[in-house]
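Fold sample X.
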Amino acid sequence: MPNTLTQFTAPALDQVRILVVGDVMLDRYWFGEVARISPEAPVPIVRVERREARLGGAANVARNAAALGAHAGLLGVVGNDEAGDEVERLLAGGGIHSYLKRDEAISTIIKLRVIGRQQQMLRIDFEEAPTDTVLRDKLMQFKALLPDYDVIVLSDYAKGSLVNVADMIASARAAGKIVMVDPKGDDFGRYAGATMLTPNKSELRRVVGGWGNEEQLTAKAQQMRRELQLDALLLTRSEEGMTLYTENEIFHMPADAREVFDVSGAGDTVIATMAAMLGAGRDWHEAVQTANRAGGIVVGKLGTATVTREELFG
């Protein structure tokens, strides 16, 4: 089985409609210079010279799908605040259709990263779980949007936006949609019935326990896939690449990264690329190879970044 990216004809990604649902965040970056240590404590002083905001969490998945040329919609919850306004502006600028719900009782999730000398010095998180009323409204809107989309991506960052995920999966599958899930937590049972799960190694280990060799890993991954009635399980393995488990085969791709600069958001790029390729009618092999290449490109960029159609297909 090939372990390098075969040259495929570029798919018609502009015909694919992807709805991303999950925990919406705003990633803020403060860039500066580090010239001295604080006299108050043994910590570096970063003199901030530039600020940047990017879409994070589920919004970054939608951003990646849109960067590939797909029609992307985003359903999630933000606060009725300045950060929520900024998320809306970034979505509009990225050509992403917004179905955001505003929750008066919470603040928008923010991850603030302080960067000095091209290295992350500090990250500060601001987060609150959405209220039940807003989540019920979101579930109703999700079901109403299903006819308009081909692929559903559920991006779970365990921040409270996907408490109704089992109902969402059941509704989407009943409507004949491809349902892909980036999971979190120690119980994957709520994702049962999805088309595919895309855990990383630490996420899988938390659920199934450790493994001593490849045979044990395969047995545990396949047992989980069968128990959850998944068509496929895609395990992202960092420097080891990624492995696809289906009923009929195991397909491994070694890592395609040329230089690893920042792994944040790489999983978002992988699941967005898989969603776009499967939505375009491509098979598992081509989708995994393309997603592996996309992940290899994005880890060479700073922060939550995207890969363009041109970078993937020339």
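Fold sample Y, listed below.
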Amino acid sequence: MPSSARFSILDRANSRAEFSEAEALGGVVERAARAEALGYHRFWVAEHHGVPGIAGSAPAVLMAAIAARTGTIRVGSGGIMLPNHQPLVVAEQAATLAALYPGRIDLGVGRSVGFTPAVRDALRSGKEGADRFEADVIELLAYLSGSAAITARPQDSSTTPVFVLATGAGVGIAARAGLGVVLGGPALTQRSSDGKIPAIEQYRAQFRPSAWRDEPFVLVSVNIAVARTSDAAREQLLPEARALAVSRTRGEFPPLEPMGAAAYAAVPAREKKLMDDFLATSIYGTVPEVDRRLAQLLSDTGADEVLVSGGAFDGEAQAESDELLTTLFQ
């Protein structure tokens, strides 16, 4: 795969059936340490609230644990959801981490609100919170740059890279603010008549240089699984595909459970369609198979970096997948 793109990991801290949530969080920290040894560039964690199948609810806390356990890999959020927080508090958290671990902290922010009304009520944040996302981003950047009415402490002076997890209007927000953009899912599969990806074209066309970036920076997020056989790689993705399908049909994302071909065959038709959609936007297979698909993705997107997502129930299979993937970028 002839490319200068770097590879990083996003771990959502999936819970696994028969394992405690504490074990899930410990596994994230251990995976980050392995990722550093393997040569990955960044290791990011996400924010979810009240989700039975995800233990990661406090990115800044988990980032601190990972940064303390590692020494060189960049550590970041993918992302902190601004509608759930005051921009000043997010700026202070990021700046504190950056002061403790200089040159290693990234801040990815998104506009998603709580998944259910009960979660939104608990967060004191309604669906309208997403509408003020651009204003919140601008306020956050002012605190980090030191240009706000008050000075956030510790002072960051725009040293912490900021990324926008973009869906819809988020692409334009990232471009206007001069920030890196993270794109995944439908944003990467939608094509114009000339085969180009509209979201990426819009971002690059509208990008304005800033204190954070002189040039556009595109980070593509995709579910990736690598194994010795194509079937084994596909099986890695089935537990998360099923959990996602359940969340969309029954309203609750459950802990990951092991799932083989026989269990997949017995899944109800509606859930199976959702699982197949998930697999269709994922990259999985043997090293040569993944190599070809990644080369095509990078050719189509011109991405600067690949953010590897997707959680497996089998921790050993996940570790092997992380290691096999490094043969493509080392």
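Sample Y note: The chain has a mean pLDDT of 94.
Also: Residues 133 and 165 are 11 Å apart (CA to CA).
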